[in-house]
Amino acid sequence: MPRLERLFKTQAIILRRFDYGEADRILTLLTADHGKLRAIAKGARKLTSRLNGHLELYSRAALLIAHGHELHVISQAEQQEAFLPLHSDLMRSAYAHHIAELTDRFSEHEEAQTPFFNLLNAALGWLCAPEADLALIARYFELRLLHLSGFAPSLFECAIGQEPLTARDQFFSAAEGGAICPEHARGYAVQPLSLDALKVLRYMARTDYESVRHLRLSPALHAELDRTLSHYLLHLLEQRLKSAEFVRQLRARLL
C-alpha cells in the first residue's frame, strides 16, 4: 500500500491494548483504510487526558494519527461507537475478545483490508443485540473471515476427489481444506461431519447474516460446528486460540 502520510485520519477498532509506563497505552488497531496498526496513546490513562474514554477495547473511534517508525502516535480520538453491551455482559465480552483475536491473527500490518474492518464492525454490533445467538455469530464470523482470508473450506465438493458432495454424512479434514466424502476419507486425518452441520455451514457460506440470525440450532449442532471450525483454525494458525478456550469454559459454567 502507499506510504502512510506523516499525519492521517482514520476510523479504527481497538483490538488489543496494554498499559505502558506511568500513563500511556499501546494499542493494536484495525483501521478502515490502513489495515492493522500498532500505536501509542500518550497520557491516555490520565483522567485529564483528551484521549481518556475514547480508546476502549472493541470500540470504534475516529483517530488522528502521527506516523511513527516502530509505533504510530495517536494525536486525537473521538469514540464513534462504544458497543456498550460488550463491556457489561461477560459472555458478550468473551465472544468480542474471540472475534478480535481472530481478526488480529488474520489481518496484515499496514495493508488495506476494508472488508475485514466492515465484518468486524458489523459483528461487534450483532453481539450487542439483546436476543443474539452469540455462538452462531462466532461461527458465521469465523466462516466469513476464512473466506476473506482466502482459506474458505470446501463445502460443496469433496476436497480430495472434487466431485459434488451428496446429501449424506461426510467427513472434514483440516489438512485437506474441507469436507471429504466417505469414499475418499480413508488414509486421511478426518473427523465426522454430519449432514445437518454441512447444511448449516453451506447456508452460512452463501447467506447474509440477516437471514442466518434466524437459525435455531440444537446444542449438539452448535458443538459440532464449533469443533469443526476450531479444528480448521487450529490447523491454519498452528496455535490454539486462548479466547476460544475461555468462551468454552465460560459457557460450561454459565449455560
Low-pLDDT parts are none
Distance between the termini: 45 Å
CATH topology of the largest domain: de novo design (two linked rop proteins)
- Approximately how much helix is present in the residues? 40-55%
CATH class call of the largest domain: Mainly Alpha
User: Care to count the β-strands?
Assistant: 8
Output the number of helix runs: 9
Q: What number of domains?
A: 2
Output the strand order for the largest sheet. Answer: 1-2-3-5-4
Return the string of H and E elements: EEEEEHHHHEEHEHHHH
CATH architecture of the largest domain: Up-down Bundle
Determine the structural class based on helices, strands and strand pairing: alpha+beta
CATH superfamily descriptor of the largest domain? Recombination protein O, C-terminal domain
Strand content: 15-25%
Shape: elongated
Strand count, sense and barrel status of the largest sheet are: 5 strands, mixed, barrel
Rg measurement, Å: 20 Å
* Mean of pLDDT: 94
Organism: Candidatus Thermofonsia Clade 1 bacterium
Keywords: DNA damage, DNA recombination, DNA repair
Function: Involved in DNA repair and RecF pathway recombination.
InterPro entries: ARFGAP/RecO, DNA_rep/recomb_RecO_N, NA-bd_OB-fold, RecO, RecO_C
